[in-house]
């Protein structure tokens, strides 16, 4: 299991010094003890500080700036879609929370309550939002009257609290986290359907273009969808080290379920009373955890240039009798040149640390590009650039500094994605039978299997794979579907006859199919019934 609470006094697992000489190294390697490695990387990389309440973490500026860089992109994109930002209160009254009780039922243990102020009990306890449907929708009901009030498209950037009990992990599973939650209402289902996919595409771009993480767009199964909605789409990422899938972000079509509950009605153009169609969508600070898990290495964080607070760190490498002031000036000038062109660069001019110590320090923090300037570089009017992702060293003439650095940052961004995709793809296993499925699961694979799409079968898969590592479940049905040969071995006419014959005993007909007597098309890996789709399966976070 990845992550986990940071253990006091060093953890307990076997320690392996990776970078003893600088005192900056990690005690665990990514391959040997992924959980401890992760905890150490987020702390030593100065993203997270552990807090004295379990499951709560301090987001330090290094993490917050990554969040802000994604936020800048997403916020601008949703504004183009005419979504407006707003802010609703943190607290939920119990009455309104109950209104959603069917859907909240499974979630109820995770809802945190305020029961006291000072020494006195509150007359009515107040819940802290785990999500804001019940907070917002009573006002949607009030604000939406006629078709001219539609669409209503609101978003809020906020924190939510879910009192999780299982294995808290920084970013990935914390009791309080930051997210954006979008809640929109439309006159027609078509408009809602369109928006679901537009938002999902933005989520894909956040992962693939900003975090350099390959994701799969798809639809959740009936068992895994948001129970309050009509259907759920998601982007799914994969962590090769743990062999676990991770839901990256979700975009739901809520249908008219909440409209019914909260009486969100409007008068349509014909003057008739209609119910709105709603969506909700969110991505959270979990994104940052996925990025750390996918790109981090035994030297620490590896940040994709597009989200890194600092893209270039410039380090002076003075020698005893060299022109130290000249080197320091060249560093400052390099930073100024890069900054002028919008590259996020800084110089580390601290005099009480050696260059070697600084290298390790900025490697731990994952800065994409390091620029070293020593006497030789000064003499040749050049700098030495070292890539964080692959260690590649290049001497760059200061004449071409900006264009070369920009080119290298782009290459790093692309390379991180390519390597991550290669590793993810190498974990994908296409299986056709239950035995293959179990074997692939044991090998920490991301499994693509033909499925009959029956809820009972998914429940059965969960039961049959229960164990210490957690059960397997469906991750998503990718929108991009490989071919699924149907190929009945009996003719359509024959099939019709069989169906007719067994009309009364339809169950028997189905069972004949599952016994593969009459069906030679692709079968469900778990039930043997005719497969309807290819679906990704695996253990997940
Ligand atoms: C935990 C406690 C109470 C998830 C919960 O995905 C309620 C819930 O409703 C809960 N955990 N959910 C589902 C959230 C659905 C939906 N909300 C808006 C989203 C996107 C943003």
UniProtKB/TrEMBL annotation:
Pfam families: HGTP_anticodon, ProRS-C_1, tRNA-synt_2b. HAMAP family: Pro_tRNA_synth_type3. The keyword NADP does not apply. One of its GO terms (cellular component) is cytoplasm. The keyword Transport does not apply. It comes from the Eukaryota. PANTHER family: BIFUNCTIONAL GLUTAMATE_PROLINE--TRNA LIGASE, PROLYL-TRNA SYNTHETASE. This is proline--tRNA ligase. InterPro entries: aa-tRNA-synt_IIb (IPR002314), aa-tRNA-synth_II (IPR006195), aa-tRNA-synth_II/BPL/LPL (IPR045864), Anticodon-bd (IPR004154), Anticodon-bd_dom_sf (IPR036621), Pro-tRNA-ligase_IIa (IPR002316), Pro-tRNA-ligase_IIa_arc-type (IPR004499), Pro-tRNA_ligase_II_C (IPR016061). Its EC number is 6.1.1.15. It comes from Gossypium anomalum. It catalyses: tRNA(Pro) + L-proline + ATP = L-prolyl-tRNA(Pro) + AMP + diphosphate. GO terms for molecular function: ATP binding; proline-tRNA ligase activity. Keywords: Aminoacyl-tRNA synthetase, ATP-binding, Ligase, Nucleotide-binding, Protein biosynthesis. Residues 66-304 form the Aminoacyl-transfer RNA synthetases class-II family profile domain. One of its GO terms (biological process) is prolyl-tRNA aminoacylation.
């Amino acid at each position: 299991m990845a992550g986990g609470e940071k253990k006091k006094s060093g953890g307990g697992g076997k320690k392996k010094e990776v970078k003893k000489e600088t005192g900056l190294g990690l005690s665990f390697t990514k391959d040997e003890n992924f959980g401890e490695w992760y905890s150490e990387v987020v702390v030593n990389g100065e993203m997270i500080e552990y807090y004295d309440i379990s499951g709560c973490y301090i987001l330090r500026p290094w993490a917050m700036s990554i969040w802000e860089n994604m936020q800048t992109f997403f916020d601008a994109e949703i504004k183009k879609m005419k979504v407006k930002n707003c802010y609703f209160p943190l607290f939920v009254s119990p009455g309104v929370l109950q209104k959603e009780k069917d859907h909240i039922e499974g979630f109820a243990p995770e809802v945190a309550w305020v029961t006291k102020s000072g020494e006195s009990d509150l007359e009515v306890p107040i819940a802290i939002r785990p999500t804001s449907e019940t907070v917002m929708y009573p006002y949607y009901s009030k604000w939406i009257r006629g078709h001219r009030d539609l669409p209503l498209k609101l978003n809020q950037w906020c924190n939510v609290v879910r009192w999780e009990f299982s294995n808290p992990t920084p970013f990935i599973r914390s009791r309080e986290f930051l997210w954006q939650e979008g809640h929109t209402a439309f006159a027609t289902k078509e408009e809602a359907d369109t928006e679901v996919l537009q938002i999902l595409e933005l989520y894909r771009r956040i992962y693939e273009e900003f975090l350099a993480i390959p994701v799969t767009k798809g639809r959740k199964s009936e068992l895994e969808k948001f129970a309050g909605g009509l259907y759920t789409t998601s982007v799914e990422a994969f962590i090769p080290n743990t062999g676990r899938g991770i839901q990256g972000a979700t975009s739901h079509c809520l249908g008219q379920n909440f409209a019914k509950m909260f009486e969100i009605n409007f008068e349509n153009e014909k003057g008739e009373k209609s119910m709105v169609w709603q969506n909700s969508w969110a991505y959270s600070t979990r994104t940052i955890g996925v990025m750390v898990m996918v790109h981090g290495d035994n030297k620490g964080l590896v940040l994709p240039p597009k989200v890194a607070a600092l893209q270039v760190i410039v380090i002076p490498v003075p020698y005893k009798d060299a022109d130290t002031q000249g080197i320091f000036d060249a560093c400052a000038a390099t930073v100024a040149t890069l900054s002028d062109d919008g590259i996020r660069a800084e110089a580390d001019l601290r005099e009480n640390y050696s260059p070697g110590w600084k290298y390790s320090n900025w490697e731990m923090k994952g800065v994409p590009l390091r620029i070293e300037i020593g006497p030789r570089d000064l003499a040749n009017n050049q700098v030495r650039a070292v890539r964080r992702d692959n260690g590649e060293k290049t001497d760059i003439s200061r004449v071409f500094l900006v264009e070369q650095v920009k080119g290298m940052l782009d290459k790093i961004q692309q390379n991180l994605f390519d390597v991550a995709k290669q590793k993810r793809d190498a974990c994908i296993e296409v299986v056709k039978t239950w035995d293959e499925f179990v074997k692939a699961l044991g090998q920490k694979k991301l499994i693509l299997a033909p499925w009959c799409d029956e809820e009972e079968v998914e429940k059965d898969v969960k039961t049959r794979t229960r164990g210490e590592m957690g059960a397997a479940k469906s991750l998503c049905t990718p929108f991009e579907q490989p071919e699924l040969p149907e190929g009945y071995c009996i003719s359509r006419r024959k099939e019709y006859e069989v169906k007719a014959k067994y009309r009364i005993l339809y169950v028997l007909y189905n069972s004949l199919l599952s016994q593969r007597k009459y069906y030679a098309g692709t079968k469900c890996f778990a039930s043997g019934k005719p497969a309807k789709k290819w679906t990704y399966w695996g253990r997940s976070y």
